[in-house]
Amino acid sequence: MSLRLRLALAGALAVLGALGLAAFGLSQLFGAHVERRAVAEMGVQLDQVLAGLERGPDGLTVARDPADPRFDRPYGGLYWQIEGPDGVERSRALWDAALELPADTLGAGGVHVHHLPGPDGDALLVLERSVTLPARLGGGSARAAVAMSAADLDAARRAFVADLLPYLGLLALALTAAGWAQLWVGLRPLGGLGARVAALRAGRAERMGADWPQELRPLAGEIDALLAAREAESARARARAADLAHGLKTPLQALMGEAARLRATGAESEAEEIEETARAMRRIVDRELARARTAARAGDASADARDVAEKLVAVLRRTPNGARLDWRIDIPAGTRVALDPADLSEALGALAENAARHARSRVALSARAQEGRVLLGVTDDGPGIPPERRTALRARHGHADETGTGLGLAIAAEIGEAAGGRLTLSDADPGLTATLALPSPGAPG
After folding, report:
1. Using CA of residue 321, residue 324, residue 326, residue 331, what is the dihedral sign?
2. Domain 3-155 part of CATH 2.60.40
3. According to CATH, what is the number of the domain 303-439?
4. Residues whose CB falls within 8 Å of the CB of residue 83, separated by 6 or more in sequence, listed in order
5. Which end of the chain has fewer beta carbons closer than 10 Å to its terminal beta carbon, N or C?
6. Interatomic CA distance for residues 68 and 418, integer angstroms
7. CA distances from 138 to 59, 132, 162 (A)
């Protein structure tokens, strides 16, 4: 699951949870408000009941019932009850039942609110008041109560929630959409970070730079520091390769000098053996140094194949072999390979020089993409190379023939393999095609 989707789902769940709590809280507040209004209304009704009290032959009675007809309808949902010294007087709505008031003690004028079961099993909201009777009513104290069915309060609360839910749903959609927009804006730099890293791998950029939000700047700085460290290590590796080349070539030159002195003294056979050994060692050193340089620069290297090819052809056209040939470049602009420009120039130059040496009239350089690789081809219209000799020419430490064909192919093969590529030879009509398959920048090795 992507980071954006995770955050979006977490945000949506948080919005739903918050709105659910808000709906519950609002319904509770609304219920409390409705109950307070109901208690206030029952207080007025209780005053009306107390105002209608009279003293008759059988004790206290309510001469004037409150105006609400539900007090007179059996189980109508509104009830009153008076517990006086002479007994209990109740509304017609209670019929033959009575309100079971709790045995609590109220001071004079004290008021209590209860939630009690009603005569038909429904829950009731009860307002109870302790009153002191005047002398005309016989004196003493009485408990007066007015009750209403709690079902009406519950119905009002449910209606409120039903009216509230559509608006909460719209609010949830609006907040979720706002969260998505916030995520899109907030995480957009991460997409740019990935694009910049891809540009680094493809060779279109050299550094991450500092134009990032504050939270991403340390990461970009660490990547740049890693790139700088790798470049420094590559430079040190190239310097070590150059030092090795100088250190080995000087003794080889001394061996060649000794061979020349031996030949001057008439020891032709000994001189020839020393020169052959020195040449073989020189070829091995050259090839291994080329491989070491390529490996040191592999990974973050990138070269424009067409640019390298055009520069090579411009040089080769000024050589005796190249001046007589028709050079063709069929490499699309912007074709890049994961190889240092110097290494690509060395490998492609070895193939092009070899082709120029054997071509009759034409050499073509081409490129095409294939499954994350670039196939660079050098085709000449010469006599070609017999299939049985091709493997030996590409083999490591393979001997060059008298024309130098083997050395050029071997160096190109070594450079290609060090970069994760491969050199293949195939017949052309006429001639030979040498194809160097190299990875594209950013492609897996």
Report:
1. positive
2. no
3. 3.30.565.10
4. 101, 142, 143, 144
5. N
6. 100
7. 9, 10, 51
Nearest to 413 by CA among 428, 425, 402: 425
Write the DSSP string, 391-441.
Answer: HHHHSTTPPP-TTSHHHHHHHHHHHHHHTT-EEEEEE-SSSEEEEEEEEPT
Please answer whether residues 436 and 348 qualify as being in contact, where contact means their C-beta atoms are separated by less than 8 angstroms. Answer: yes
Indicate the helix (H) or strand (E) that contains 88: strand 87-90
For the residues 51-61, what does the mean pLDDT come to? 78
The residues spanned by each domain of the chain are 3-155, 225-297, 303-439
Q: Out of 75-84, 252-261, 301-310, pick the least confident.
A: 252-261
User: Which range is least confidently modeled, 77-91, 163-177, 192-206, 361-375?
Assistant: 192-206
**pLDDT at res. 291:** 61
Q: Is the per-residue pLDDT at 296 higher than 60?
A: no
Q: Which residue has the tokens 């994961």?
A: 338
Give the H/E segment covering residue 142. Answer: strand 141-149
Strands (E) in 323-388, as ranges, are 326-330, 336-337, 362-370, 373-380
Comparing CA positions, the residue from 400, 386, 398, 390 lying closest to residue 435 is 390
More confident residue, 418 or 30: 30
Rounded distance between C-alpha atoms, residue 266 and residue 197, angstroms: 65
